[in-house]
Specification:
The structure is a single chain. This protein has 2 helices and 5 strands. The chain is α+β, with helices and mostly antiparallel strands. It has one domain. A 3-stranded antiparallel β-sheet has the order 1-3-2, with no helix packed on it. β2 and β3 form a beta hairpin. The structure holds iron/sulfur cluster (2 copies). The site of one iron/sulfur cluster has 10 residues, from loops.
Length: about 110
């Protein structure tokens, strides 16, 4: 069985700012754990660590390009749910971490 490419990657979680509505945080009825979030404005929340000079989401476990996983997979915010493996943004993130581009999602 081929391992899903995201399981040996994690580059997107260490490349981009991850912003979403404060209503996705557990404080306001959502599911994203409070401790992993920073408030940006009264409307916008951000995954902690994703706005650092070398971004890395505080929920990311493992090592980018080796073995990586989201520590809050079931509770991750909408931008993470919508992010597509094999998209241009995915391949930009992979390039940033010296990983080869994906041709598209392996079924
Ligand atoms: S979506 Fe792309 S950049 Fe993100 S973990 Fe999967 S393969 Fe890596
Ligand atoms: S919440 Fe999970 S999927 Fe989203 S950036 Fe962080 S580690 Fe990646």
């Amino acid at each position: 069985m081929t391992l899903h490419p995201c399981l040996t990657c994690g580059a997107c979680c260490a490349s981009f700012r991850v912003d979403f509505s404060v209503h996705e945080t557990e404080d306001l009825g959502g599911r994203v754990p409070r401790g992993l979030v920073v408030e940006v404005t009264e409307h916008i929340a951000r995954m902690r660590g994703t706005d650092h000079a070398r971004p890395r989401c505080a929920a990311l476990t493992g090592q980018v390009g080796q073995r990586a996983a989201c520590g809050i997979y079931e509770w991750r915010p909408s931008p993470c749910r919508e992010f597509e493996a094999g998209s241009q943004a995915c391949n930009r993130a992979r390039l940033r971490h010296q990983l080869p581009p994906l041709e598209g999602l392996v079924p």
